[in-house]
Amino acid sequence: MIRLIALDLDGTLLGSNMRVSEEDSDAVIAARDKGIHIVLNTARWYGVAKYTSLRLGLTTPIICMSGAHIQEPNDGHELLHLKIPTEIAREIAEICDEGGFETYTTVDGVTYMRTPRADIDPARLPKDMRLANEHAEHITQPTTGFVVFGEDAVKTLLGSVGERYAETLALPMGIGEQMYVTITAGPADKGTALRLVCEYLEVPLEEAMAVGDAEPDLDMFEVAATGVAMGNAVDSVKERADAVAPSNAENGVAWAIKKFVLEA
């Protein structure tokens, strides 16, 4: 019996338009109403994950930044919040600034974004997100982390701070529509965080299911009794999953929930 479902966001619950499809939404809500804990487990920051959580009416803790930050959406209670030391975080930001990489830096609850998109109106951003061409100047205290996109950016960061701070940082890399890396204080991963949430909610790991599409999601598969890869997942993820669902463009999350929870 499945009592908890952990869902990745990008490439899994979210489509290419960064929205949850109606069929996936209906399945998540049906599972929620059946008493199943729905845990969002994402490489992205708390603010964007909370938006999806609230739209689906979820109350379970949200796992963010690939396991470095866990927070409840209602009262804001934090189960875990690992932070990168200020000087190391500033060094990472300076590398990203110099390279002009697409970067999302979260510090003190605010996410600063440098994005190639030209259609973003700063006035319409939520209060915890801000456009910023330079990020290093905002690193004035220990930092939640970074999400950086692009193959050149990933290779540069893994080859510099990744090597020098291997024992201090966690740098899980994934490939969705493009290559990305999440940089947080270590040790942190999606599986360890999922284990913590299961313990907090008193759900045995044997009653947990995880759904994902990228390499960092394999850590969830190692913890949950049932691991489901999306049809759009990379082969290495599909090979280590218990089942392969249709893609995120084909309501794969709904398929997994129906197969293992609603119709089981």
- The residue fraction in helices comes out at 25-40%
Instruction: Average the pLDDT over all residues and give the rounded result.
Output: 96
- The CATH topology annotation of the largest domain reads as Rossmann fold
Give the class from helix and strand content and strand pairing. alpha/beta
Biggest sheet statistics = 7 strands, mixed
**Number of distinct helices:** 9
CATH class group of the largest domain? Alpha Beta
Q: Could you name the CATH homologous superfamily of the largest domain?
A: HAD superfamily/HAD-like
Question: Which regions are unreliable across 5 or more consecutive residues at pLDDT < 50?
Answer: none
- The CATH architecture category of the largest domain equals 3-Layer(aba) Sandwich
Report the sheet-strand fraction: 15-25%
Strand runs, count: 15
Number of domains: 2
Shape: globular
End-to-end distance? 8 Å
Instruction: Write the element-wise H/E pattern from the N-terminal end onward.
Output: EHEHEEEHEEEEHHEEEHEHEHEH
Backbone CA Rg: 18 Å
Plain-language structure description:
The protein is of the alpha/beta class and 264 residues long. It folds into 2 domains: 4-81 and 189-262, HAD superfamily/HAD-like (Rossmann fold, 3-Layer(aba) Sandwich); 86-185, Hypothetical Protein, Haloacid Dehalogenase-like Hydrolase, Chain: A, domain 2, CATH 3.30.1240. Helix content is 31%, strand content 23%. The protein is built from 9 helices and 15 strands. It has helices at 22-33, 46-55, 86-99, 151-159, 161-164, 190-200, 218-223, 235-239, 252-262; strands at 4-7, 37-40, 62-64, 69-71, 78-81, 102-107, 110-114, 129-131, 145-149, 169-170, 173-175, 179-185, 208-212, 226-229, 243-244. The strands form 3 sheets. Strands 6, 7, 8, 9, 10, 11 and 12 form a 7-stranded mixed β-sheet that branches. Strand 11 and strand 12 (179-185) form a beta hairpin. Helix 1 runs parallel beside helix 9 (252-262).
